[in-house]
């Protein structure tokens, strides 16, 4: 079963070395496309960290549409998300060709988004909702187009996650499905930010576009990372002596708690988005 890469002892405390071995197994036993995504994700994370150093040296504002914050946060976020999706998809039943295509397209979109956002940061111009020049307009539209590609691939994986996967433990299936369900909320908030921002730009309110779209960032973030947090909990439970039925209950409670917290953040963000 892919949900437990190392053997679990019947009792006692699992040493850190076994958890580390389990993490290494995702690389050594992973498919070629998964390892490729892990490597690309690590490179994107490294890019985010490098730009954190650039920010520390160069300074400037951390907030606003023109800031080193953007290549930092987008590099870290896209890198972590790519690694997460490649890992979580290993518990989803997919044909091998479909897996390669979906993960390959998703990885390419993550690279393009991060690269263009980073490019615009070095040019000291906004990356989103920027139509000041012909080049900026092209960048903005490419970002929107690849954002659409990200949505399509993640929706496809979400649909696949709700198919029966006999090789995956019930607790992990529940965690993956709950995580992908929350991810749909992140996609919805991201689409709403883009749509509202475009409307504001077209009506001549570019600065308002950044402000209003930014109101949904907390909701976007909290719903996006459930697909990492919940499966990680399910995976760590495989190193305990808990029976699978109890693991399912723990994952269900964790999913419910995460859902309540996410709804609170979404409600708060929605108020700012509606009144912005």
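-> sequence recovered:
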């Amino acid at each position: 079963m892919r949900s437990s890469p190392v053997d679990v002892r019947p009792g006692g405390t699992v040493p850190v070395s076994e958890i580390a071995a389990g993490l290494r197994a995702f690389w050594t036993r992973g498919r070629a496309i998964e390892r490729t995504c892990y490597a690309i994700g690590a490179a994107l994370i490294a890019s985010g960290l490098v730009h954190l150093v650039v920010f520390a040296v160069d300074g400037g504002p951390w907030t606003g549409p023109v800031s080193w914050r953007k290549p930092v946060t987008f590099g870290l976020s896209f890198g972590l998300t790519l690694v997460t999706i490649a890992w979580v998809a290993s518990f989803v039943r997919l044909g091998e060709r479909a897996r390669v295509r979906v993960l390959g397209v998703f990885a390419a979109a993550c690279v393009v988004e991060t690269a263009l956002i980073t490019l615009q940061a070095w040019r000291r111009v906004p990356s989103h909702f920027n139509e000041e020049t012909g080049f900026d307009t092209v960048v903005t539209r490419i970002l929107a187009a690849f954002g659409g590609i990200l949505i399509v691939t993640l929706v496809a994986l979400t649909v696949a996650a709700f198919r029966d996967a006999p090789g995956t433990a019930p607790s992990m299936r529940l965690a993956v499905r709950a995580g992908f369900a929350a991810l749909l909320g992140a996609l919805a908030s991201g689409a709403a930010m883009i749509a509202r921002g475009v409307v504001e730009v077209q009506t001549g309110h570019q600065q308002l576009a950044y402000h209003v779209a930014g109101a949904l960032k907390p909701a976007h973030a909290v719903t996006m990372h459930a697909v990492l947090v919940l499966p990680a909990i399910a995976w760590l439970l495989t190193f305990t002596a808990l029976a699978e039925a109890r693991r399912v209950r723990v994952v269900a409670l964790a999913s419910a708690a995460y859902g309540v917290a996410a709804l609170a953040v979404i409600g708060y963000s929605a108020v700012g988005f509606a009144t912005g």
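The chain has two domains: 21-161, 169-276.
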